[in-house]
Design a protein that fits this description.
By secondary structure, the chain is of the alpha/beta class. The chain is built from 12 helices and 16 strands. A hairpin with a 5-residue loop joins strand 12 and strand 13. It is elongated, with a radius of gyration of 26 Å.
Length: about 375
């Protein structure tokens, strides 16, 4: 029902602790998740992805109009004697998860309408604070064969931090915007269910009834972690989280009770190969994570020259670079940000995006590209 994985990097102190514990990093362990997680160090996990039992309470077999049987969730692990028993189980594993999350960590829990509202209530009761509900819209859902209800085409993911008072958590806003054609990523994700070769099968039947698509886990992991972060999956199933995490250079640890699922997950994981040289390609750098660069540093380093003309993108406004790191404009001598705001009649404006230089090829390039060059200690625009 879950998984996680990654390329090994130089271990942090926490990684060292986990590796030396009963359950090692970057492996899928056959174990009861509640008992196993209790043996892991406190505040050792960056992100948790949990796909717990749905407690569907199915009564009898489900058949298609041609009388063929539907592969529903009939496994023993989804059977609970009562709602109270399910709630007790949910509270137990969530409580241990909260202990394991780092102070800046987050948790994702996915479920259907059968269980996700109970799970959400318990999460908030334990002190978690919900950041978003994310709706997974299945673009190829199973039909409602009896025609007695709406076709169920969604599942809900709860993304939460440890508490309402938690100040920081990791969210790669830029990566999500990049994946969405430079538009803000919304909380409705249109992704098909597992199909084709991705669906794990045994003798032609689904190996696991609730296997999640790699595309879904890719987006979750890209949104809430960065290379080297440690991901925990309490309900590993056939290993989707592990496989995707390994492809994305994240560390992972996962637990699963069923030996057949563990074997499938380990086989999937063993086939994943990552070139360490490609790790840089997996990173999306947010500006807020980068060291601050003063505009004057570009002048001091020679990336900009005194008296050089800066332009806005449409060429309407110009400014001259002064030796002290300010700009001489028609509105007076101002900082790059204040000049951009004043000329546009705004209260504030990001001067790094507003101001551009004219390259020898005749094109305009934002001074933010010069800032990136300064950070990288090399020019990104030859012939500048």
């Amino acid at each position: 029902m879950i998984g996680s994985g990654a390329v090994k990097k130089t271990p942090s102190s926490v990684s060292m602790q986990l590796t030396s514990a009963t359950y090692a990093l970057d492996q899928i362990h056959q174990a009861d998740c509640i008992e196993a997680m209790a043996k892991l160090p406190e505040k050792s996990i960056d992100m948790i992805f949990a796909d717990p039992p749905y407690n569907l309470q199915l009564q009898g077999e489900l058949r298609r109009p041609d009388d063929s049987q539907v592969d529903g969730v009939t496994e023993e692990w989804d059977q609970f004697s009562s709602f109270q028993a399910y709630d007790d189980f949910t509270r137990s594993w969530l409580k241990v998860c909260r202990r394991l999350l780092k102070d800046e960590g987050t948790i994702w829990v996915i479920g259907s309408y059968h269980n996700i509202f109970r799970v959400g209530f318990i999460m908030m009761d334990l002190g978690f604070w919900i950041l978003n509900d994310v709706i997974w819209h299945k673009t190829n859902p199973m039909p409602n064969f009896r025609g007695t209800r709406f076709q169920s085409a969604t599942e809900t993911m709860i993304w939460a931090k440890k508490s309402i008072s938690q100040k920081k958590y990791y969210f790669n806003y830029r990566a999500m915007k990049n994946l969405n054609d430079d538009k803000q990523m919304q909380n409705v994700w249109h992704i098909p269910i597992c199909q084709g070769g991705e669906r794990q099968r045994i003798n032609g039947r689904k190996a696991h009834p609730t296997q999640k698509p790699e595309q879904l886990l890719y987006r979750v992991i890209a949104a809430a972690t960065k290379p080297g972060h440690i991901i925990l999956d309490p309900f590993m199933g056939t290993g989707t989280t592990a496989v995707v995490a390994k492809k994305m250079a994240r560390r992972f640890i996962g637990f699963e009770q069923d030996a057949h699922y563990v074997e499938i997950a380990r086989q999937r994981l063993s086939s994943v190969r990552i070139d360490p040289a490609s790790i840089e390609l997996l990173e999306t750098r947010n500006r807020r994570d980068q060291p601050r660069v003063k505009f004057g540093s570009l002048i001091e380093s020679g990336l900009l020259s005194i008296g050089q003309t800066l332009y806005c993108q449409n060429g309407r406004y110009e400014a001259s670079v002064k030796a002290d790191g300010t700009l001489l404009t028609s509105e007076g001598t101002l900082s790059i940000h204040r000049a951009a705001a004043k000329l546009q009649g705004k209260n504030s404006s990001n001067g790094w995006d507003f101001w551009h230089i004219r390259h020898i090829d005749g094109n305009l390039y934002s001074i933010d590209q010069l800032r990136q060059s300064y950070l990288a200690r090399q020019l990104t625009l030859p012939g500048m």
